[in-house]
Design brief:
Bound molecules: flavin-adenine dinucleotide
Number of strands: 19
Strand content: 25-35%
Length: 440
């Protein structure tokens, strides 16, 4: 096939470009922003001002697509760490045990991660980036079944129609695609929204010299009593990023005094103690996240041929759990796998791709969505569709988090890192372990 057009040149768009690169002569990535060269945050991804953890499951998926990525990240200064040992994690009103574990990950700013992935994509000879360009509309074929062109607007105000054989919508949370579907007679996409009214405030800082046996401190609030949380993480260039967060409109402010006071009132003093004498390097940026959302494109009775959505357009998850990029990477990995056996010129084969892809999204989203909702619905103010059995699952998770067995904690981390599925928690083999009496 000749050309695939990818709308959006962020994490999901870049990973999809690699996923499809072997199947098309040309990959066009269309992106409104110019790409940064020096780590500045792009207008299209304001969330990059905040801590962006890449989970082990996401890191593995990206490494599958870009085997050279870990090396590139390391060369550019990403901080390697063992999540089980180097991260101090307060959750469920207690500090998790630390031990040598199987979860090597790296810490970096989101801008560095995106830049490294983009540089990997630039190595592909059939990829072309077109910046200063946004997709405004799609055109259907004469039968109204297949998307055959994208209408794009350039920064200079000109509009043009670009033809292609396949399209990817990777335009993120604010994607126009759901609206386009309903305007063009494909129906309204079902969407679940979970209102959490989360507020973020973040900046980069330099910590005073000193001995530390950790690379990050995570303080997760346990609802309903605790609403404030924070993440302090070591990133490239000997800097630290601190994100403060608050549920249900208890938001950290952007002035330094208010920011530090908020840090002082976290459920534990450890982050405040670590940063109270820090040198603040950047302005404090804020971000409001009113609700998590999950769209069910696969449930539409009719769906146009020749296009698939990836990344945040499918689901925009509560960022406290650091899952969004990993889910985008896992979806792109699945797309890559399914694309291998797809004949993009054949209608039946395209249908199989679409069905396989939407089915895989159900699996991929089940764990991150379920874990996030488990925490979100601890607050009575959270509004949205509450899954059946959540309270029982939460009770079991509390037992898991409180376990003294390293084997159980390791399992918990693997689920949180999207290496294992949440349902594995509830396997009889594991349940019997949770209730086994402690041996001395
Ligand atoms: C405050 C905050 C903190 C977060 N923290 C984490 C974290 O710790 N870990 C984690 O994994 N995830 C985190 N996330 C989620 C993560 O940012 C997203 O899941 C991830 O960026 C998804 O990538 P994406 O490519 O789908 O969308 P985006 O990164 O949002 O990118 C969309 C791209 O599409 C472009 N675009 C928009 N409209 C058009 C158009 N019409 N035509 C062409 N291009 C267009 C935009 O310019 C942008 O480049 C966080 C999110 C927020 C809001």
């Amino acid at each position: 096939m000749k050309t695939v057009i990818i709308a959006g040149g962020s994490i999901a768009g870049l990973a999809s470009a690699k996923a499809l690169s072997g199947k098309f002569e040309k990959i066009l990535i269309l992106e409104p922003d110019a790409f940064d060269q020096h780590g500045e945050v792009r207008k299209g991804t304001p969330q990059a001002n905040h801590v962006h953890g890449l989970l082990k499951g996401g890191s593995d998926a990206l490494t599958h697509l870009f085997p050279n990525l870990p090396k590139r990240l390391k060369e550019r200064g990403a901080v390697s760490c063992d999540f089980c040992q180097d991260v101090r994690w307060y959750i469920n009103k207690k500090w998790m045990p630390r031990f040598c574990g199987p979860l090597p990950i790296s810490f970096q700013t989101r801008s560095l991660l995106e830049r490294c992935i983009r540089d990997e994509v630039r190595q592909l000879s059939n990829v072309e980036f077109i910046t200063g360009c946004r997709v405004k509309d799609y055109r259907l074929d004469a039968e109204g079944k297949r998307i055959v062109a994208a209408v794009v607007e350039r920064d200079n105000g000109t509009t043009e129609t670009l033809n292609a054989e396949f399209f990817i919508d990777a335009t993120g949370r604010g994607s126009l695609f759901p609206n386009w579907l309903s305007r063009n007679g494909f129906g309204a996409v079902k969407v679940d929204k979970v209102k959490v009214d989360l507020g973020y405030a973040s900046c980069l800082m330099e910590l005073p010299a000193g001995e530390r046996d950790w690379q990050s401190i995570l303080i997760y609030p346990k609802g309903p009593e605790e609403v404030r949380g924070a993440t302090l993480v070591n990133v490239e260039d000997d800097r630290w990023m601190l994100t403060l967060a608050g549920y249900h409109n208890d938001h950290p402010p952007a002035d330094i005094d208010g920011y530090m006071t908020f840090a002082k009132t976290l459920p534990q003093p450890d982050i405040y103690e670590a940063v109270k004498d820090a040198r603040i390097l950047t302005p404090i940026k804020i971000h409001k996240f009113p609700y998590g959302q999950r769209r069910y494109y696969g449930d539409l009775p009719r769906f146009p041929k020749g296009i698939l959505p990836v990344g945040d357009t499918n689901a925009s998850l509560n960022p406290l759990f650091g899952q969004g990029m990993s889910v985008a990477a896992l979806s792109a990995k699945s797309l890559s796998h399914l694309a291998e056996s797809t004949n993009f010129a054949d209608t039946k084969s395209l249908k199989a791709l679409k069905m396989g892809y939407f089915q895989s999204l159900r699996h991929i989203f089940a764990t991150p969505w379920g874990l996030a909702l488990g925490q979100d619905f601890r607050y009575p103010m959270t509004i949205g569709p509450k899954p059946f059995g959540l309270s029982v699952k939460n009770a079991l998770k509390e037992i898991i988090m409180g376990a003294s067995s390293t084997e159980i904690i390791e399992r918990f981390y693997q689920v949180v890192h999207l290496v294992e599925e949440e349902k594995s928690f509830y396997h009889p083999k594991w349940i019997s372990k949770y209730f086994r009496p402690r041996t001395k």
